Amino acid sequence: MKVTRATFDEVMVPNYNPANMVPVRGEGSRVWDQNGEEYIDFAGGIAVNVLGHCHPALVNALTEQGNKLWHLSNVFTNEPALRLAKKLTDATFAERVYFANSGAESNEAALKLARRFALEQFGEHKNEIIAFNQGFHGRTFFTVTVGGQTAYSDGFGPKPGAIKHCDYNDLAGFEAMINDNTCAVMIEPLQGEGGIISPDPDFIKGVRALCDKHNALLIFDEVQSGVGRTGQLYAYMGLDVVPDILTTAKALGGGFPIGAMLTTAAIAAHLKPGTHGSTYGGNPLACAVAEAALDVVNTPQVLNGVTEKEALFRQLFAQINEKYAVFDEIRGKGLLLGAALNKNYQGRARDFLVAATDEKLMCLVAGANVVRFAPSLIIGETEIREGMARFERAVAHVVSA
Ligand SMILES: *Cc1c(COP(=O)(O)O)cnc(C)c1O
Known about the structure:
Bound molecules: pyridoxal-5'-phosphate
Number of strands: 15
Helix content: 25-40%
Distance between the termini: 39 Å
Strand order of the largest sheet: 4-10-9-8-7-5-6
Largest sheet: 7 strands, mixed
Strand content: 15-25%
CATH architecture of the largest domain: 3-Layer(aba) Sandwich
Order of helices and strands: HEEEHHHEHEHHEHEHEEEHHHEEHEEEH
CATH superfamily of the largest domain: Type I PLP-dependent aspartate aminotransferase-like (Major domain)
């Protein structure tokens, strides 16, 4: 059966608007479409493909587990899930792991756990959740309402309640908002979808201190910032702040759907048998792939490589900007970078993305004013230079158009 981009409009719910080309194959940081055209991938499946496409370690894990055991449900546990949970707890502050299938579900679990913890420890009055404007936490109705963009949560009827929003990096505003009725604070330790915004060191430390003061749980949503993306296994490790609950997904499976919520034993104890669950959560196939991804990512070679590659990207961005003067700044950390457009190009991030696709480069946007880059953590220097040469041609095209 011949399918094309046109088929999308005939059979798919129109909630997405994908590019005109249809990719069919990938290897490392290169992708080929139906016509055999080759693309450089700086999008990484939205910060997912940490090891590029078809990394041998992941293909091996998938095929090996695929020949053994695919699925059980949580009526039984399984070896890959137990090994992955052991490695995640060994590598982080956490002592307990809950597996889900996506970032939204991991956050949903975190929020439900926080509500339950507060209810059981302090009583019904302690139920308020504070999150941040422009924050993104997924698309279930609870998580999208906690997210800080009403454009995503409006239009679906009555919303989950007791959720407030504060400006990111506004510690005084946050201090005015938090009180003893606050049960949890959900925050990205580097805002992704909202425009690649780094936290001020004093702000994030202040948030931690105020959560302690008011007995509120601090939830770090590391769905985008986690698994090596910033050059540390998790972004909190570079901030000198430890959360009570951390969620991770996207890159965790290196392209296979999986998410996880990590926390301490004392907090985890409030999700007793039957209180929460997922049929697929902790699926052996997903966990086997994630274990292999974690084994590769959580090494000094890969993590240090992220910082080196960031430097090369920043140098090449600066060269482009010297010629074309389109960016205000390059934001972000590690290989989650945002080129923020200057006042002459406000609202035009998508034009740069479309021009890049025409030049055979895959990239992303983060809002209307930021072109976002989230390539493989092991992308080669050749691909970085070739991709940036293509990006320069895209920039030249937008500037001259
Ligand atoms: C992508 C993202 C999510 C949602 O993850 P899904 O797997 O799409 O549900 C949640 N939080 C952050 C910070 C994200 O970037």
